[in-house]
């Protein structure tokens, strides 16, 4: 069994700090303990949630020291291949890399492909790497709800570079940008028409654009694409003040240009840290995280409330039949939730 294989959390062992016994081995870099801890925080059971909160409180002082990178791109751009090449290069520079890969979940069954380890075979075998695929579920942006907490666990386990791979390109990818230090957009070596075809919101979130597959017959095309994308991005406001979004090219297959991507990430983070914007960005993200948790928790409490559940089906039927406005139905259900009716 691979050391990263998720295990079921231990049964509740009473209240108090870290009743799971996972904190100490995790802090020592035990990847099995890390995998079990992530399984624990992803659990929806109330007793597991209490254990997860205690574990996170114990580990929080040891987190926050990593470089957090979000990576997205169009289908077929080679995200997994790029992340493997990138991860191996960064490990070669003396770092430890954790990859949190968000897999697309089936909207009908909730099933998930979870195939990133098979696509990153070399990286997954490296003792300095940890790959954890998680199903996206229905959370905004295809980001598993507990990805932020998983990042903290990985940092506490000694991984100083965290990569969050997202499902793909879309307006809701703002959820990823709101949890990382740098947001990287991978593109194919096509012309400027492709950039125009992307949703403007996702392009405006990028701190770094990388044209992948710059190898073989595509080298010249990639070089032309870098220039095209550079001109197009010059017309947009950068996501980060006082930072001109670089457009680079690389080949994840040959490894050419991957070092330049890592060097650029280092320059970006150094500049942000020196200006104080890195701390400000993370503080803003923590605040947004809190409010997102409030929204998610309130919705879960609302839909599980017995009084609401008793009326929910009828309210939906009335709305779809046109006999009641959605606003009226929502107010009635909220009144039930507040026990005002």
Low-confidence stretches: 1-16, 106-114
Oligomer: single chain
**Which CATH first-tier class of the largest domain would you pick?**
Alpha Beta
**Strand order across the biggest sheet?**
3-2-4-1-5-6-7
Total domain modules: 3
Q: Would you mind describing this structure in some detail?
A:
This protein has three domains: 1-61, Single alpha-helices involved in coiled-coils or other helix-helix interfaces, CATH 1.20.5.170; 63-274, Rossmann fold, CATH 3.40.50.300; 285-337, Helix Hairpins, CATH 1.10.287. It is 49% helix and 11% strand. It contains 15 helices and seven strands. The protein is globular, with a radius of gyration of 22 Å.
Would you kindly provide a brief summary of this structure?
This protein has 341 residues and is an alpha/beta fold.
Can you give keywords for this protein?
Helix Hairpins, 341 residues, 7-stranded parallel sheet, Single alpha-helices involved in coiled-coils or other helix-helix interfaces, Rossmann fold, 3 domains, disordered N terminus, 15 helices, alpha/beta
